[in-house]
Design a protein that fits this description.
Elements (H helix, E strand, L loop, with lengths): L2 E2 L5 E2 L4 E6 L6 H6 L3 E7 L7 H9 L10 E6 L5 H20 L12 H19 L8
Antiparallel strand pairs: 1-2, 3-4, 4-5
Amino acid sequence: MPIMITQRLSLGDDEVEISAVKASGPGGQHVNTSATAIHLRFDIRASSLPEVYKERLLALSDHRITDEGMVIIKSREHRSREMNRQAALERLISLIRGVTAAPKKRRPTRPSKNARERRLKAKTRRGDLKKSRGKVSHE
């Protein structure tokens, strides 16, 4: 069953490697004996994503993306393996969706004539105030 990212973009199941591992840390007897935590691995360079999305993903400064272009997501917040699997997949989907939206082009703006005049008047007022703080003559 393909993993749907957007209506037009999906990933095959074979592109995502999911493995169950034992969760570390506190949580009672159940957590320490059963492999309910999930490690999800996704190779960006070997995926079927369009080149534009691959480049954007690799350019991200996300701690989950390694230098080799692997996305590693660890999920262990739920007690069941299936819920952790779903949580890891949702994190991967949201990461990829984040790069599908094209970045907005910046349109350079200029301050209005009134704004420039207000700025200059404020500077003049501030300068006059500072001039009035000069030394006091005793004459």
